[in-house]
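ESCALATION

Customer reports they have been waiting on this structure for their group meeting. Please prioritize. Original submission:
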Amino acid sequence: MPTTTGYEFGEIVLVPFPSTDQRMTKRRPAVIVSSERYQHERPSLIILAVTSRVRAAPAVGDAVVTM
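Update from on-call: job pushed to the front of the queue and completed.
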């Protein structure tokens, strides 16, 4: 059975992220982290925001990617 989303693990997508006051949204890049198996079972995606902003000490949930 094909996935219900049409997206694959590792793809970069643009999604509307809300501002902190919830009044506006802005399209920002995110990476798909839900697996194909997960997407077969559920009609949703798990995504992580992508940013070039680096903090001195990563916060809970941050993942620093180096190349």
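Sent to customer with the following note: Strands lie at 12-18, 25-32, 47-49.
Escalation resolved.
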